[in-house]
């Protein structure tokens, strides 16, 4: 059963210089109990897609077109009051940097308990007891001490565990993790990823995992969506993206070939995608990736491709998807 469906979503910023099309026709879906990995370079629209689901908008930002269905209900036109009930209760989010997401003047207990009292109607004592249990569930040593601590007294890994505990406090049906391991070293990153997989197995929570690291996607996700310039350019199960598909989007190919491999020639330079992501106020005509694509033709530069199926569970936004083995 589909827990989340995003259909042709357009989320724009209104500026004096024009509309910034942060999310420009995104279509995605997520099945219950699965993890959807969203990958792409900075500025590709990953985080803004997540913010659109929760309607966490700036004053000059709104949904221009499309719909977001959660558990069969269109929440894209929900009121602020309706969204405040959904946020934290049914859909939770782990933000990129826990130090800026946690309030430095409140204890950990105050911040987790607030979620429980607001959404679950717990008393102060009940919320404090549950707060300690949540810290135990995310494998924090001495949870009683951490519960009384302030965020600045904790390490980066512990702060991230507190964020996960807070996000899962109300047992949400959907957890959105926006690059939750970016500021952590590789050892702590591995622990956090393992913890999230364990909690998913225990609770059955569906996850949207946003990152620019394809290695993390391979470890965490069941399905993958590759984004570029506010659009989804490829969707497929994770094994098809990495090895089993016959076709691949040129952008996905570029991301994969730019990853260092243990079995590659150490003297050979890594392939790199030329150029940079275009400015959102000056998007190219036709395929948005065409200026950086080595396979681009005049058709690519003048016409915009649609997201089309190349197999029953594999979609690519490209006129001429790369056939693996042609290189």
UniProtKB/TrEMBL annotation:
Residues 4-254 form the ABC transporter domain. SMART domains: AAA (SM00382). It is found in: Cell membrane. The keyword Nucleotide-binding applies. One of its GO terms (molecular function) is ATP binding. Keywords: ATP-binding, Cell membrane, Membrane, Nucleotide-binding, Transport. Belongs to the ABC transporter superfamily. This is ATP-binding cassette domain-containing protein.
